[in-house]
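#dry-run=false #mode=assembly
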Amino acid sequence: DIQMTQSPFSLSASVGDRVTITCRASQTIGVYLNWYQQKPGKAPKLLMFAAFTLQSGVPSRFSGSGSGTQLTLTIDSLQPEDFATYYCQQSYSFPYTFGQGTKLEIK
Amino acid sequence: EVQLLESGGGLVQPGGSLRLSCAASGFAFSNYGMSWVRQAPGKGLEWVTYISGSGDTTYFADSVRGRFNISRDNSKNTLYLLMNNLRVEDTAVYYCAKQDFRGYLNFFDYWGQGALVAVSS
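#status=ok
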């Protein structure tokens, strides 16, 4: 199975900050990497697929980069609605696996 | 508008069984693979199982293989998860998720609201 390791586990930031979340895969996954946002009590929401393709309707302050075993999600100019938990997920092979999640909190 | 509506969750004793349903609307159901993803209380997301659009291909997480079964009725636009021999560690919110694809790349583009399954004596 492909293990996905996200860092940091939690992150404290202010409105307007730029933050980066990293996802490392235990083997190469190319760009078979998706990012989701989840708010408390809600279902996850797709932010980005194929490492850097923004899902329709997602603001352009979200961006993705990387390939292989290290991929990142960057949020420029944090907005109040961005404070949530973020998950990466590999779709390179079954079983699909998620990172442990990164909780983004307001400083 | 795509909608996924889970039902069938509840409280069950260890060793018991439960069947979840996911009613889909707003898209050509039979054209898309579907998955179940679960989230234990206060924990992260765990993919559970996948079924292809035709229903002839399935995959399972090791943690549920042999105990859970995924199926679909394309005439009813409904996805099912039959859970047998339930364990306390199966306690979670279970989400059904639609899979979209771009070539070989695939992702969960729509999720249901979730169904809570609690396994306890």
